[in-house]
Write a structure and sequence with these properties.
heterodimer; A: alpha/beta; Rossmann fold; six-stranded mixed beta sheet; four-stranded antiparallel beta sheet; 10 strands; B: mainly alpha; 13 helices
Chain lengths: 243, 251
């Protein structure tokens, strides 16, 4: 495994609706590292994540993924990136099983490999009872779990999760945290966007805080078991006191 | 391989959506009724036709009018079948999810186009089965029927490509359907003004879709007609691909 960061983001900028949604954001992420991305609504988290997932092109700046230029070649996402967008968009006409098979096949897996990968993630996320159920009739929490499964099914090197704990019950949130740490231990880099500070404290190695499109804080989470320091930093930035 | 995966995904979605089944059932019932009426009239006119030199046969009086009826229905059916292909996916956010799998926009466009083309191909086959079954027992003009079938297939493929392009242009399926219908009607009747002014031939006539389909329905396979359909399909799919590629810039 190389020591170079898996993801290198430099000077990332993007305007949306006439204003700078993301401005000059730079950071890097190593394999096995879990980065928590915090920010108030409209801070630019989802825009940043869309660019990192290859769904949105930056206006300026560079994204290097596994040593390659991701902006020039968004096809790298095929094997390297798994993305759970906010609100977990799914096809209501397809079953849980069909979603997982489709995501593998769309990324070029053979039928047999797709079947094996789908079975593995179904077992890991305990979706066995739901595998034949259509996504359109799933509860919000079940949809969220399926969205996470779709992001992980092809075993990407970088997993981007936008509000993954939305609508999950406390048991499922605990399972999700365990899953994220398990993937990180296997060398997967994870970016977790959330509004919940406790979520970041519980699973992340590092925290980045976006405010008004700019990266205002990027530091490891050490010796902050209660999350008091993070809370003070976050509210300081969000209210302008600590900017 | 991923092109096939997009097509399979779209076919699966078409197969479980009631819209495709309802459209297929209603239109095939309507076409079967038209076929029975046409066949009845053809059989009733046998004595009169027997006395005519070069009298039109089963193909002219039953099979080709049936295909022309299908072409008329296609003006409504194809926009309904294509409206959600990209517009609906953009609206629900699954299009961005598809793009994030690293698929090139052309693969998404062509994959979805192939799926709807396959559905339209089955629709055409189901319709064609009626004159084929009766024609096998009579003296059908197979050459003319083949040309008319080719023309109808090309019309369906062109309407589908226009539908995909319109679906790529918006996030609202209803607007996509309306756009596709209007574009098709404009292409169908673009030379009406010139005709009314007594001008025939020229670029406007060449641009008109009806000109090219009518030749094929008459049994004339002319390469310029085939080229027109190929150009219309290619241009529509290129526009759809460019618009989809622009989503990464525009969102």
């Amino acid at each position: 495994m190389s020591d170079a960061p898996l993801l290198n983001v430099t000077g990332l900028s993007r305007r949306r609706a006439g204003r700078a949604a993301v401005a000059d954001v730079s950071f890097s992420l190593n394999r096995g590292e879990v980065l928590g991305l915090l920010g108030v609504n409209g801070a630019g988290k989802s825009t940043t994540l869309s660019m990192l997932a290859g769904a949105l092109r930056p206006e300026s700046g560079s994204i290097t993924l596994d040593g390659r230029d991701f902006v020039a070649d968004p096809g790298l996402a095929r094997s390297l990136v798994g993305w759970l967008p906010e609100a977990a968009p799914l096809w209501p006409e397809l079953s849980v099983d069909e979603h997982l098979l489709a995501f593998c096949r769309l990324r070029g897996a053979t039928r047999a490999a797709a079947r094996k990968a789908a079975d593995t993630i179904i077992a890991r996320l305990q979706l066995g009872d739901l595998r034949r159920r259509l996504a359109g009739v799933l509860s919000q929490g079940q949809r969220q779990r399926l969205g996470v499964a779709c992001a992980l099914v092809h075993e990407p090197a970088l997993v981007i999760l936008d509000e993954p704990a939305n609508a999950l019950d406390p048991v499922q949130i605990g399972e999700l945290r365990k899953l994220i740490r398990e993937r990180a231990a296997a060398g997967v880099a994870v970016i977790l966007s959330t509004h919940v500070l406790g979520e970041v404290v519980a699973v992340c190695d590092r925290v980045a805080i976006l405010h008004e499109g700019r990266l205002r804080h990027d530091a490891p989470l050490r010796d902050d078991a209660g999350g008091k320091t993070l809370e003070a930093t976050f509210f300081g930035i969000a209210t302008g006191a600590g900017a | 391989m991923s092109l096939g995966a997009v097509t399979r995904l779209e076919l699966r979605r078409l197969a479980v959506r009631p819209l495709a089944w309802a459209i297929a059932a209603l239109t095939i019932a309507w076409l079967a009724w038209s076929f029975v009426l046409g066949l009845g009239q053809f059989l009733g006119a046998q004595v009169k036709l027997a006395g005519m030199a070069d009298a039109p046969g089963f193909t002219d009086l039953v099979a080709i009018p049936l295909l022309a009826e299908l072409a008329k229905l296609a003006f409504l059916v194809v926009p309904l079948m294509t409206m959600s292909l990209l517009a609906g996916e953009r609206r629900t956010g699954t299009l961005a999810l598809l793009a994030s799998t690293g698929l090139a926009p052309w693969r998404i466009v062509v994959g979805k186009y192939l799926a709807v083309l396959l559905w339209l191909g089955l629709w055409l086959l189901a319709t064609l089965a009626m004159p084929l079954l009766v024609g096998a027992e009579s003296t059908a003009d197979w050459g003319k029927l083949a040309a008319a079938t080719l023309g109808t297939a090309l019309l369906l493929a062109t309407l589908a490509a226009i539908g995909v392009a319109c679906s790529a242009a918006t996030s609202f399926p209803a607007i996509s359907a309306a756009m596709a219908l209007i574009v098709t009607l404009v292409l169908w009747t673009v030379d009406r003004g010139a005709q009314a002014a007594g001008v025939s031939g020229g670029f406007l006539e060449w641009l008109t879709m009806a000109t090219h389909l009518q030749n094929l329905l008459r049994g004339l396979v002319v390469s310029s007609d085939l080229i027109w359909f190929a150009l219309a399909i290619a241009l529509s799919l290129i526009l759809a691909t460019r618009r989809l590629g622009g989503d990464r810039e525009r969102q």
